[in-house]
Amino acid sequence: MKVVYLDNNATTMVAPEVLEAMLPFLSERYGNPSSIHSFGGNVAREVGRARDHLAALVGASPQEIVFNSGGTEGDNTAILSALATMPDRREIVTTRVEHPAVLNLCKHLARERGYKVTWLSVDRQGLLDMEEVRTAIGDRTAIVSVMWANNETGVIFPVEEIAEIAHEHGAMMHTDAVQAVGKIPLNMKACAIDLLSLSGHKLHGPKGIGALYIRRGTRFSPFVIGGHQESNRRGGTENVPGITGLGEAACLAAANIREENERVMQLRDRLQEGLLEAIPYAHVNGHPGFRLPNTLNIGFEFVEGEAILMRMDDKGICASSGSACTSGSLEPSHVLRAMGVAFTSVHGSIRFSLSRYNTDDEIEYVVREVPGIIGFLRQLSPFGREDLATVCTVQ
Predict the structure, then answer these.
(1) How many helices (H) and strands (E) does the chain have?
(2) What are the residues facing 299 on neighbouring strands?
(3) Taking Cα atoms as reference points, which of 236, 238, 188, 197 lies closest to residue 216?
(4) 98 & 157 share domain
(5) Among the options 106, 191, 318, 325, which is catalytic?
(6) Which tens digit of pLDDT belongs to each residue from 113-149?
(7) Which domain holds residue 180?
(8) How many Cα atoms sit within 13 Å of 301 on the Cβ side?
(9) In this structure, are 32 and 114 located in the same domain?
(10) 325 in catalytic set
(11) Could you report the per-residue pLDDT of 27-76, keeping only the tens digit for each?
């Protein structure tokens, strides 16, 4: 059966070039990059090359890149480091729509360690109120953590402007840029962000590898304490195959980001137009302009997202009803609830997230198949039967 993969915000296919780059370090080039001998030294040079590629992708210096296990470790490291290096400040500012790696850590810090957390709200389009941001950040704030782009809606936040506000009060600025890196151009040299998290498996690299950008001069306390690796900022023998793969993925993303994203955005827009034209009582969740070029979140009223996903899976279509890290929960998306999405559609919202490997034929296939799925499920729906008399004309 044909598989159409539209769940790239959950994870991406490892690019063939990335796999090829990794393979030697899983076989004959197995040296430890910390070893003195040349067998390990040659491996260390490849780690350095990967660091260069990743730094170029985000507009940073190689010395500002610390390799780690991924986005969750990066988020935890950034926030806990800021709190450790600013012990006289006991306040954190973040948003209600963060990834669980930030959301749940902040809840834990408030509950178990007594930190004050200020939760920024979003409007119906998923946007922040900048006046609320300015009011929330004060002289007791240790760190502001706001994601660069939301993983469910793709909405892009003004993190560069928020960083300036944070610095006015002496606070640090962290951004979870897991969804943004490789999809939109970033330039850390041109902004005031102190700490940035990213993950390899979101940009066609391998799982289990990521990095934390630490602006030169930023006070820092390691999260993983051990050996001298990563300039004493993250102990443990380096994941050389993963680092090499991430470096290659970064190189590919940098080379193709503008051209590929324009094509991906055209596919996304064709998908959006096709589904909205064919399916009544459907609407886009999130701002139509300020979002990632690959992300489309649509709310289908009067149906359950899990049922939609199961029916789409029968047709070989892979998508998501929210964050992959919360997909085991029956609770509606915390992001859509924070946006005030109506009850009739919050449970029936589906995230389609594309990549450079998707094709026109795949999008046309989804546009043909999904309206029938929604129509069939609405006939079975216990909600809004008065309206469904007209809605169910879609078969």
Answers:
(1) 13, 12
(2) 283, 349
(3) 188
(4) yes
(5) 325
(6) 999 999 999 999 999 999 999 999 999 999 999 999 9
(7) 16-253
(8) 19
(9) yes
(10) yes
(11) 999 999 999 999 988 999 999 999 999 999 999 999 999 999 999 999 99
